[in-house]
Each structure stands twice: as C-alpha cells, then as structure tokens.
Amino acid sequence: MREHIASTLQRARQRTIALTDSVDEAELVAQHSRLMSPLVWDLAHIGNQEELWLVRDAGGRDPVRADIDYLYDAFEHARPDRPHLPLLNPGEAREYVDTVREKVWDVLEHSPLQGDELVDGGFVFGMIAQHEQQHDETMLATHQLRAGPPVLSAAAPPVADSAVRGEVLIPAGEFTMGTSTDPWALDNERPAHPVHVPAFAIDAAPVSNGQYLEFIADGGYDRRELWSERGWEHRHEGELTAPGFWERDSAGQWWRRVFGVRRPVRPQQPVVHVCWFEAQAYATWAGKRLPTEAEWEKAARYDPDTGRTRTYPWGDTEPGPATANLGQRHLEPADIGAYPAGASAAGVHQLIGDVWEWTSSGFHPYPGFRAFPYREYSEVFFGGDYRVLRGGSFGTDPVACRGTFRNWDHPIRRQIFSGFRLARTLDPREA
Ligand code: AVJ
Ligand code: FE
Fold it and tell me: Which HAMAP family does the UniProt entry name for this protein (predicted)?
C-alpha cells in the first residue's frame, strides 16, 4: 500500500515537472487563455493542496507556507485574475512543491493508513494524487491553447484492426451505480445505489471526426432547428463553425492544431474539443440524443451475464496500454476501434480514455451523498449550470479515471478534451 501510494504520487509529480519544465519562465507566468490559470499557479496550487491535506491535516505537521494559502484558493480568485496576484515565481514554486513533498514522504512513512476515515485505505493520499493529475490534465489543456512551436511529444496512438459501428441494445433493468467500496473513489461517486434504467440503445463508439464533418457539411452550424435556444445563442456569440482548433483551408481541406502541430483532420478519430451545445445539436441532427449519466455507466459497467457491476468496462483490472488511451501516453484520441480489449461486457468500445464524453445529465448528488472531506470538491457545484462528462480522455491519468468517476463543466466549455457518443430511447417493440 505505502509503495503504491508513493509511486502514484511520484508519477503525478513527474508529469507535473514535464508539463512545467517544457516551457520557459515567461510562458509559465503568462496567461495563455482567460479560461486557464498561468501554469505557475497550477504548480503552486498543487503544492498548496498537498500541504493542506497531507502535511497539515493527515500529518498534523506545522504549516510550510500558511501565508500563501489565500493565493492558491481557487474560490478566492477567478482564473482571469490569477496572473495579477503576487504569486510565487517559477523558482519559488518549484522549491515550495519540493519542500512539501519531502514532508509528505515522512508523513506517509508514519501514517497508520487506517483507523481514521481520512487515511483509511490511503484515501487522502489517493485524493491528492488525483488532484495533482486533474491539474496536470488542466495544464495539458493550457498547452493545447498556447501559441508557438510544439514542446510536447508522444508516440502516435494505436490504429484499429477492424471498424466498430452501430449501436448496442441494453435491456431494461436495475444495476448498481456508483461505489461504496472503491477506496479512492471521491465523494460524488458514492454511495453505491440501485438504479432502474429503461431499455436504451447506445453507440458502440464515440462520434468520429468523419461523422462530425457530415454534420458540418449538412449545414449543422446554420440550422436553427437543430440547436436549443441557449445553444443557438452561444453558437453565435462564440462564433462556432467547427470543433475547437479546427480550420479549413481555401481548398476545403480541414486541419486541426494539436499541441502546436497542424494536422489533417483524421476521419476515423473521435471528435474532440466540442461543447455540450454542439454535441446536443449533432445528436438532434442524427435523430438521437446524448446518454444520461446512468445509461453511460450501465453501458460501461453492467455485465448482463452475471448481473455484476464492474470497476472498468473490461473488468476489474487496472487500465493498461491495451485497454484504454489514458495518461498522456499519446497526445490525441486513438482511432475508433483501437481498443477491442477495452470494450464493455455489452460490447461498447472506448468508454474509458480517448475523449471525455458529454452526458445529458446535470451534476447532482447520489441518494445518500455525504461531502467528504471538503464541500468545495463537489457539493458546492451540485445543481449549478454544469453537465456531467464521463470516461476520461487521453490526458487523464488512470488514478483519476474509473467507471464511476464523474467530471463536470459548463455546457459552453470545449478547451477540455471533450467528445461524445449518442444514445436512443427504444420504442416498445424494440425493447
Ligand atoms: C472535477 C475537473 C471539474 O478541475 O475544476 C481540481 C477538479 N477540483 N481542483 C476542476 C478539481 C479542485 C475539477 N474537476
Ligand atoms: Fe485544485
């Protein structure tokens, strides 16, 4: 357990270092987009959360830098204001996170890892590793927004041996949603509870660039009837005409910018950088709809043969290179059909990894929810103007991704690695 915690924390830190050492000091303190913090804010915020939870709370040690807590409290300062704060400079921020981490090794060595809810099963250490990885994914999104020549590289994702198309029928019935037993599951994933889901069909794969190009070519962005009122308003205000980072040349060829590299849009890849309103308009155009969160989770976790609910679509084993495109191993989604070993019991592909998938659901607590260990992780966001995303992206580390993991964002956001898949209500004769 202690070894596992240590290596998980170390993996997060290696990634944080790679994301912050790859740009110069000027770029670390710059704001690459009003939607994002300067990278140097994320860096010190990672250290500050680690200090609050592991050094002070779990470890009962004296503060390292109580004087800077206010700077790195995400609720104190909105993102556009963060570059103007008296932040630690890059050198100070690096030294700070190192000092905190040194103390954490000592706390970990002496923690009983049981007998207290915060440390049982290593929970708070796992929570902090997930927190760092979540900010690493946010920093990866900042890298995607930055201008200038590329600084990140990774192997190309695997290609598919065979096509995956069509939809999978999931019969009506109850399944267990959420978890009460996964030791590192966060508060909003708890508790496990039965949910009856009416029969539905869900696409075996996420929507591809090729399919999305048909929507564009068919006037999808100009047909009022395909969009909700708010969606249409945002489509105009945001001047949306294609997914984020796409452009069309004078010959009509579509290109997309991927971490500073201009590449042709690859039809067999899942579409990424679309907002919820775009996903909804596409679904209307296709005569379908987005899945609810419960439908998504049932398609991912329910095994009709045993009636059991799995941790991951493929079973209970940790994600690996053959099952899911996670962990920034690649810098883009893999082709549709590239992970046959990661399919769910029902035969649904690429639910975990590649792209976060928008669902139709708002962010609400499960019955029996209890905020733990702090209200600001989930509770303060319940009932707000958010939509839930599921499944993780190529930029999500496995520690922060499982069949129960819930992400959420505003329906206009698309700087995240967001795509979607479609579902459909069955008519009574089909069901
Ligand atoms: C769960 C991804 C929406 O990044 O805003 C990071 C995670 N919470 N620090 C976010 C989080 C506190 C959160 N999301
Ligand atoms: Fe945070």
Answer: EgtB
